[in-house]
Amino acid sequence: MATRGAKVERTSVSEQPHELQYEAKKEGTTAKNVEAAKKATGSNKRATVEKKLEGKK
């Protein structure tokens, strides 16, 4: 039986606008800040990006 989405997709933030908007809304920031956090960390892992965004609050 197939599962919904690959595991990697649940643990990462892609460049897709809806993904950036979702993460921005979840963290109470903007999509631009999410993109900047991804660039600053050099990672697209959700936990790493969220940790970086926590420091910006």
TrEMBL record:
Residues 1-57 are annotated as: Disordered. It comes from the Bacteria. Residues 1-29, 47-57 have a biased composition (Basic and acidic residues). This is DUF3606 domain-containing protein. It comes from Mucilaginibacter gossypiicola.
